[in-house]
From TrEMBL, chain A:
One of its GO terms (molecular function) is hydrolase activity. Keywords: ATP-binding, Hydrolase, Nucleotide-binding. It holds the Pfam family CT_A_B. This is Antagonist of KipI. The keyword Transferase does not apply. Residues 23-322 form the Carboxyltransferase domain. Signal peptide: none annotated.
UniProtKB/TrEMBL annotation, chain B:
Residues 3-216 form the Carboxyltransferase domain. GO terms for molecular function: ATP binding; hydrolase activity. Keywords: ATP-binding, Hydrolase, Nucleotide-binding. Pfam families: CT_C_D. This is Inhibitor of KinA. InterPro entries: CT_C_D, Cyclophilin-like_dom_sf, PxpB. Transmembrane segments: none annotated. PANTHER family: 5-OXOPROLINASE SUBUNIT B. The keyword Nucleotide-binding applies. The lineage of its organism: Bacteria, Bacillati, Bacillota, Bacilli, Bacillales. The keyword Zinc does not apply. It comes from Paraliobacillus ryukyuensis.
Length: 336, 239
C-alpha cells in the first residue's frame, strides 16, 4: 500500500490505454509519454502495460507502508526521500515508512512512477487507465487526492531477487538504496523553449488557404495554459479555410491537429474525444508524441512536414531503440 | 465497391463511403464496419465510424513484422490499404437491413425538460405537438462519439430544428434528451452543454459495469416514447 500525503498537480493511474471501445465513444486514455511509462515498468521488472503514476509538472508526496522497488522516468522531477536526493531512471529500493517527495518538473512535463508488482486497481474495459471525464478506471476514476491509499500488486520471484540485491546494497541506517546502473535519459529533442515536431498532411490540409498552409510550417505556435491530457491549444497565426466548408464528424486520433472556427489549432492527445467535426490540417507522427507530451505550456512548437515513409521509418527506429533498452535492462536485472 | 482510402497520420486509414449523407452511404458505413470487425486482422487496433466514413486504426509495428516475414518491401500504409482493399473487394453489396430498433422512454417537460415550452413557442406548436413529432420518428444511430455511448442521431423533423441556447448550461443531467440545430440526442453523462432540453430518460446509455455497457450501436435506430413523471421515478427507483 502507498499513502498519498500530497497529491501533486495532476497525478493519475495510467497504462498504455483502453482500446476497442472508441467506436462507442470511449476515449483511449493511457500514458501521455508511453516510452517513459514503459521504461519505468521495465526498470522495476513489470510488464510494459502495467499501471504507473503519471505525475504532471508538480509531483506528489507518497509514504510507503511496506518496502518497495520503484523507478521514476520521464520529466526530471527532483525526487527525494527524507530530504536525500534519489536518482531517476534506475531501480530504487525504499524501506517501509519512507516518504518520497517529488518536486517541480524542471525538464519535461510528465514523470512516471512505477512500482515492482504494479498498482492493484481494477481493469475497466480492459485497462487500468484513468478516464477523468467519464470518472472510470484508474483510482476511483479520478486524479489522486491526499489520503488516498493505493494497493500494490504481488511481485514475481524475479522481482523479489532484484529486491534482495538492492537490500544488500542498503547502508545500515539508510532509508533507500539504488542500483549501480541506470538507463540513459531518453532524448526528447526539446530544450527549455522550443520544440519541433514532425507532421504528415491532415485529411483536410487542402481545405486551408495557401497563406495558412505556409504560416503553419513557417511560424511557431505557443502551447497555451489550456493544454491538458485531452489536447494542447496553440496560440499563433489563425488558420483559415478557403471556403466555409462544414465537415461531417469523423474519427480523430492522437496527434491530430484540428482547427476550429477561430483558426487556432489544437493538437489532440491521449484523452481526446474519439470523433470531431473540425478540419484536420496535420497529424503529428507517432514517434514525436512523447516529445509533445513532455512540452510545457509556454513553450513554442514548430511543425515540420515529412512523408509517410519518413514517419514510419522514425517509428521503426524508435521502436528498435526501445527494444534495445528493454533488453539492456533485462540483462542488467538478471545479472548475478 | 466504390471506396476512397486516405491516411490518418502514420497509424490510420480513413475509408470514405460517399460524399453526402445518403441512405446508401449510411448502409455502406454500417456494412463496412461489420466486415472490418469480422475480418479479425491482428494489426487492426479498432475501427471508428463517422457519418460518411470508417477510420481503421492499425498497429504499424505489427505490420513491420508481418512485412518482414512476407518479405514485402512496400511501406506500411501501402500494405495496409492493399489488405483493406482485399477485404472490402469481397463485398458485393451491403445489406440494407437496419440494426435493432431500441425503444427509449422519455419523461417530457417539467423539471426534466426545461426547454420544452421554449421549443414549442419557437415553432408555434403546443408542447403536446412537439412531443408527438419527436416520438413519431425513428432516429438512426450514425456514429457514437463526444462521450461514451453518445449517439449522433439522424432523422429529426425539420419542424423541430432549434438553435442551441445562447448561454450553455453548466451542468446537464445524464439521460437528458435534447435538440441542437437539426440534431437530436441523449446525454449519456452529466456534462455542460447548450442543447435545448425536451425531457429525460431513466435508461442508461452507458453502464461500464454491465456486460453490455452500451445501449446502442452504430446502425441501430432509436425510437422515443413518452412516460409520466411517476413512471420515470419508478424506473429510477428500480435501478
Amino acid at each position: 500500500m502507498i499513502h498519498v500525503l500530497k497529491a501533486g498537480l495532476l497525478t493519475t493511474v495510467q497504462d498504455l490505454g483502453r482500446f476497442g471501445y472508441q467506436k462507442d465513444g470511449v476515449v483511449a486514455c493511457g500514458a501521455m509519454d508511453a516510452i517513459a511509462h514503459k521504461t519505468a515498468n521495465w526498470i522495476v521488472g513489470n510488464q510494459a502495460n502495467e499501471a504507473t503514476l503519471e505525475m504532471t509538472l508538480s509531483g506528489p508526496v507518497i509514504e510507503f507502508e511496506s518496502d518497495a522497488v520503484i523507478a521514476i522516468t520521464g520529466a526530471s522531477i527532483q525526487p527525494t526521500i527524507f530530504g536525500k536526493k534519489i536518482d531517476q531512471h534506475k531501480p530504487v529500493y525504499v524501506r517501509a515508512g519512507s516518504i518520497l517527495r517529488c518536486g517541480y518538473a524542471d525538464y519535461g512535463c510528465r514523470a512516471y512512477l512505477a512500482i515492482a508488482g504494479g498498482f492493484e486497481v481494477d481493469r475497466v474495459m480492459g485497462s487500468k487507465s484513468t478516464y477523468l471525464r467519464a470518472k472510470l478506471g484508474g483510482w476511483k476514476g479520478r486524479a489522486l487526492r491526499k489520503a488516498d491509499q493505493l494497493p500494490i500488486g504481488k511481485e514475481t520471484n524475479q522481482q523479489l531477487l532484484v529486491k534482495q540485491k538492492l537490500i544488500h546494497r542498503l547502508q545500515s541506517n539508510a532509508d533507500f538504496s539504488q542500483a549501480n546502473w541506470s538507463v540513459p535519459v531518453w532524448d526528447y529533442g526539446i530544450n527549455r523553449k522550443n520544440i519541433t515536431v514532425r507532421v504528415t498532411k491532415g485529411k483536410q490540409f487542402d481545405w486551408f488557404t495557401e497563406t495558412s498552409r505556409q504560416q503553419f510550417t513557417s511560424l511557431r505556435y505557443q502551447i497555451t495554459n489550456e493544454s491538458d491530457r485531452m489536447g494542447y491549444r496553440l496560440q499563433g497565426a489563425a488558420l483559415q479555410l478557403k471556403s466555409d466548408q462544414q465537415l461531417l464528424s469523423e474519427a480523430t486520433s492522437v496527434g491530430t491537429i484540428q482547427v476550429p472556427s477561430n483558426g487556432k489549432p489544437i493538437c489532440l492527445m491521449k484523452d481526446r474525444q474519439t470523433t470531431g467535426g473540425y478540419p484536420k490540417i496535420a497529424e503529428v507522427i507517432t514517434a514525436d508524441i512523447p516529445r509533445i507530451a513532455q512540452a510545457k505550456p509556454g513553450m513554442f512548437l514548430r511543425f515540420h512536414f515529412v512523408s509517410l515513409n519518413e514517419a514510419e521509418q522514425a517509428l521503426l527506429n524508435q521502436n528498435q531503440r526501445e527494444e534495445q533498452l528493454q533488453l539492456a535492462i533485462r540483462w542488467k536485472r538478471e545479472e548475478r | 465497391m466504390d471506396l476512397r482510402f486516405e491516411p490518418m497520420g502514420d497509424h490510420g486509414v480513413i475509408i470514405t463511403c460517399g460524399d453526402a449523407l445518403t441512405d446508401e452511404t449510411f448502409h455502406k458505413v454500417v456494412g463496412l464496419l461489420q466486415v472490418l470487425e469480422q475480418a479479425h486482422e491482428s494489426w487492426i487496433v479498432e475501427c471508428i465510424p463517422g457519418y460518411i466514413n470508417v477510420t481503421v486504426l492499425y498497429d504499424p509495428m505489427k505490420i513491420f513484422y508481418i512485412k518482414m516475414v512476407e518479405q514485402d518491401d512496400r511501406n506500411v500504409y501501402t500494405y495496409v490499404v492493399d489488405r483493406l482493399q482485399q477485404i472490402t473487394n469481397q463485398i458485393e453489396v451491403f445489406s440494407e437491413t437496419d440494426g435493432q430498433t431500441i425503444a427509449v422512454p422519455v419523461c417530457y417537460g417539467g423539471m426534466y425538460g426545461p426547454d420544452l415550452s421554449y421549443v414549442a413557442n419557437y415553432h408555434g406548436l403546443t408542447e403536446q405537438e412537439v412531443i408527438s413529432i419527436h416520438t413519431s420518428a425513428s432516429y438512426r444511430v450514425h456514429m457514437i462519439g463526444f462521450a461514451p455511448g453518445f449517439p449522433y442521431l439522424g432523422g429529426l423533423s425539420e419542424q423541430l430544428a432549434t438553435p442551441r441556447k445562447d448561454v450553455p448550461r453548466k451542468q446537464i443531467s445524464a439521460g437528458s434528451v435534447g435538440i441542437a440545430g437539426n440534431q437530436t440526442g441523449v446525454y449519456p453523462l452529466a456534462t455542460p452543454g447548450g442543447w435545448q432540453l425536451l425531457g429525460r430518460t431513466p435508461v442508461a446509455l452507458f453502464d461500464p459495469a454491465s456486460d453490455r455497457p452500451f445501449l446502442v450501436q452504430p446502425g441501430d435506430s432509436m425510437q422515443f416514447y413518452p412516460i409520466t413523471e411517476l413512471e420515470y421515478q419508478c424506473w429510477e427507483a428500480e435501478k
